[in-house]
Specification:
Elements lengths: L3 H18 L4 E6 L4 E6 L6 H15 L4 H7 L23 E6 L2 E9 L3 H13 L3
Antiparallel strand pairs: 1-2, 1-4, 3-4
Helix pairs in contact: 1-4
């Protein structure tokens, strides 16, 4: 189970990384059912990225895969081409969504949006690393 305290710890680590790279971000944490537990929009982060961060967290949990790793599979000719249109449009295939595991089981996910794909991924990695 992923608690609110867990989510806040993940968000805190992600926020620290975002501040270190100088890029305001939206950071979302979803539980094992893909439901939003907590979200932070850092000062100056894009409003349009709120939805994207939440959907990245959902996607990472719904398919138990980092969105960065799902992206190449979702391109034309890939095994999952068109997946972005599933789940009522809740699937995001941009870098920045990572499943959160405990004792080998996926119990939630982090989703980050607001910078380049590389920046989003780096901030998500930092947040996920704080999860235990």
């Amino acid at each position: 189970m992923l608690t609110l305290n867990d989510a806040m710890k993940v968000i805190g680590a992600a926020q620290k990384k975002a501040e270190a790279i100088g890029q305001p971000m939206n950071v979302a944490v979803a539980d094992g059912g893909g439901n939003l537990v907590a979200h932070v929009r850092m000062d100056g982060a894009w409003i349009g990225s709120i939805d994207i961060s939440i959907k990245k967290a959902f996607t990472a949990r719904a398919f138990d895969i980092a969105t960065k790793d799902l992206a190449p599979l979702a391109q034309p000719g890939g095994d999952f081409f068109g997946i972005h249109a599933s789940n009522d449009g809740r699937v995001m295939i941009f870098a920045g969504g990572i499943p959160l595991t405990r004792a080998g089981e996926v119990v939630g996910a982090i989703g980050v949006s607001g910078g380049s794909g590389e920046q989003d991924q780096a901030v998500a990695v930092a947040g996920a690393a704080a999860f235990s």
